[in-house]
Design brief:
heterodimer; A: about 100 residues; Folate-binding fold; four-stranded antiparallel sheet; 2 helices; B: about 180 residues; five-stranded antiparallel sheet; 4 helices; 11 strands; binds zinc ion; TrmE/GcvT-like (chain B); Sarcosine oxidase (chain B); SoxG (chain B); sarcosine oxidase activity (chain A); SoxD_sf (chain A)
Chain lengths: ~100, ~180
């Protein structure tokens, strides 16, 4: 079974305790009414869907209940690292270090 | 669907040679407490037991039990007749230390799983690494499809806290696992 490290519990726990919650670091526009329909649609529905490194949200729903962020490779399915919600996107160097 | 309240009360599952004994725990008072870090010390005073600060931590004294389930979430357990006194103690704290205290006593039942093969019985449906679970710790996890809180009271003694509506399902799986252990298959 895949193990995922919860940054709040600070332990690796079985995947079935977690729920996926979409792409991470998507900031809600400050003034939604100023946006065109096209821009609002992009905010709501258009995601980067990369091949490789992906920043995504997970929730430790059957554990501490917290949302957090993860860096996962969409090709190998391997998690590089996880970090608390609200922290900035880790740099390439940090991700590389976590992978090695 | 109408369900009888605590319909499993008094039920037992046992294997020979005390390898496994599963029984419904006596009913108790349960609260869900949400509070900011600054208030932990005072909440501990109101409860009569200092609250654990680490997720997975557990503290106990005088029949009262405090489990830290999340960054700002605790489950408090106490004997049935202490509910009103605890509610009053936290109500007195509220003006100074804002928090949320919700009575969840009726939501859950306790199942005590004990014996040499207790961990084996739990492993039949719980993906948690029980070898890594310290005695005196507690965590929310999953048992088959049902969310539970698992408490390790001793090396061979666990307590499952599960919602009433899932209790039948969890009990049924434990019964099947207990049968296999009794027959040594
Ligand atoms: Zn967690």
């Amino acid at each position: 079974m895949l193990l995922i490290r919860c940054p709040y519990c600070a332990v690796e726990r079985p995947e079935v305790e977690f729920a996926y919650a979409g792409e991470a670091h998507i900031a809600r526009p400050q003034d939604p009414s100023a946006l065109s329909d096209e821009q609002w649609k992009d905010h709501l529905f258009i995601r980067s869907n990369p091949r490789g490194t992906h920043f995504e949200r997970w929730r430790h729903i059957h554990g501490c209940g917290r949302f957090f962020n993860a860096v996962r490779d969409t090709v190998s399915d391997k998690f590089a690292m996880t970090y608390k919600a609200g922290l900035p996107r880790p740099s390439e160097a940090e991700i590389g270090k976590a992978r090695s | 669907m109408l369900q009888e309240y605590r319909r499993l009360e008094g039920s037992r599952i046992a294997a020979p040679d005390s390898a496994l004994a599963i029984a419904m725990a006596d009913d108790c008072t349960r609260f869900s407490l949400r509070i900011a870090e600054e208030g932990i010390a005072q909440a501990g005073k109101a409860f009569g037991v200092a609250l654990p600060k680490q997720i997975g931590g557990m503290t106990a004294a005088g029949g009262r039990l405090a489990l830290c389930l999340g960054p700002d979430e605790w489950q408090l357990m106490a004997p049935l007749d202490e509910r009103d006194a605890l509610e009053a103690a936290f109500a007195a704290l509220y003006a100074k230390v804002p928090h949320s205290l919700v009575d969840i006593s009726h939501r859950e039942v306790g199942i005590v799983v004990e014996g040499r093969d207790a961990a084996l019985a739990l492993r039949s449906a719980c993906p948690l690494d029980l070898d890594e679970m310290a005695v005196g710790s507690a965590t929310r996890t999953i048992f088959d499809k049902a969310q539970i809180v698992l408490i390790r009271q001793g090396q061979d003694s666990f307590r499952i806290e599960v919602w009433q509506s899932f209790a039948d399902h969890v009990w049924g799986i434990l019964q099947a696992a207990g049968r296999e252990i009794a027959l040594e298959i």
